[in-house]
Amino acid sequence: MTNHAKPSAGIHYQQQDASYFDKRGLRRHAGPWSLWALGVGAVISGHYSGWNLGLASGGWGGMAIATAIIAVMYLGLTFCIAEMSPALPHTGAAYSFARSSMGPWGGFVTGLCENVEYVLTPAVIVFFIGAYLGSIFETPAAFQPVWWLLGYLLFVGLNIVGVELSFRVTLAVTLLALAVLVVFWFSAFTHLDFSTWALNIAPGGGELAGGHGPLLPMGIGGALAAMPFAVWLFLAIEQLPLAAEESVDPRRDMPRGILLGITTLIISATLILVLNPSVVGVGAYALSQSGEPLLDGFQAIFGAGTAKFLALLALVGLIASFHTIIFAQGRQIYSLSRAGYFPTFLSVTHGTRKTPHVAMIGGALVGLTIMLICFFGLGTQEGSAVIGGTLLNMAVFGAMCSYIAQALSFILLRRHHAHIERPYRSPFGIPGAVATIVIALMTIYFQLSDSTYRVGVIGVALWLAVGICYFAFIGRHRLILSPEEEFAMQRGEQAADDDDGRAA
Hints:
- With 504 residues, the protein is an all-alpha fold.
- The chain has one domain: Amino acid/polyamine transporter I (Up-down Bundle), CATH 1.20.1740.10.
- Helix content is 70%, strand content 1%.
- It has helices at 18-22, 32-43, 45-48, 55-87, 94-137, 144-161, 163-188, 194-198, 219-225, 227-230, 250-275, 284-287, 293-302, 307-338, 357-378, 380-416, 429-448, 451-473, 483-503, and strands spanning 13-14, 479-480.
- The chain has a two-stranded parallel ribbon.
- Helix 4 (55-87) packs across helix 9 (219-225) and helix 16 crosses helix 18.
- Pfam families: AA_permease_2 (PF13520).
- It comes from Salinicola endophyticus.
């Protein structure tokens, strides 16, 4: 019987003494509500903008169906993660799950797909932050890179100062972002006309004067085409396990935080989808072409004279997501670096703060560099379109690939590593993981059906190719026995022994 603990052919480990890990220590602080805020805060900007573009593909009814399908995918994914994260309580998260179930190559490719998401998503969010600030302070388009730089400096700095401050800021901005949404929901209830405004997209597209149009103006095909946009109502909830080594009790608190988070997001997504397009004077057609759907709704309710104040309120959701995904970006790079998959200098933590400052600075520099190349290389207008569209789509594609790998990891861990203690077990089991894989593949298919998304896929393919070449020629010879690696190898030995015992 094959010993699952033995490294794959061509994989080599370097021994490191205690000083290596002393320089890469983290500090435990997060409880279940801090984890809830981390998950909800990462996603909440998608409830402010981005989701609404799916209305152009499927109309209101199509977007509703797409949201329901994507919600099923995220339920399947989050329940898988809720089981795996306390059983494998390491900062590596997706990489850790895949490493234990599919070996070093599977762990690396999964981590690399997730890396695309966590480097590019903050870049896209800070782009929108810059757009809002430019509108509020009436700065010229050429000033946008200054807003991006200031955004990265402020929130990377807050994350470096300390995990305690980082989680306090996360909780505060998440609660504030939700409070803004609650104000909108209650304000909108007295300004609704669903049939006239939410159903004002004509069959095949175009605005239908007077509304009362069909629920599915583009048919069921339009509903399926809206799926990639519905992803933005939930994207990044899966980042919670990246805080496992900073959680006070990950075995107890991680499932609670994850399940509280996805419940909150489903409620919020349902309300924003029903109310925002139904506000009198807004409508689904206008929202389908808007960059600030929540702001449009606020202005229709309170009047355009309060535009700048309302824009500041709408900015809160973007700030919440930017801050929390910077946190996730740092931990994701840190975990792959500590294990030797990425250069090990990236995992050094701050001497007193115990935060992965090098990883956060490195990820921010990569994201900012890509933005500046697009902005100056393509010109102000075209560069902005690339940043706001193509990079966003690249992040979604990377996320879908990592979801498939995480669901597959869940299935393999259930089948081949049943001996691992599981403080929490998913009630959906393997069928829930299979549903996640099927819906993620459907989403990728409809991404590839759109020429804009295809450009992003090519970009992700190049990213993965560079990373795989690095690992093939350098990284696989320099792996370190980090907690994730040791756990995977020890549990592999136990699985092999169990298999041998059953065979005997």
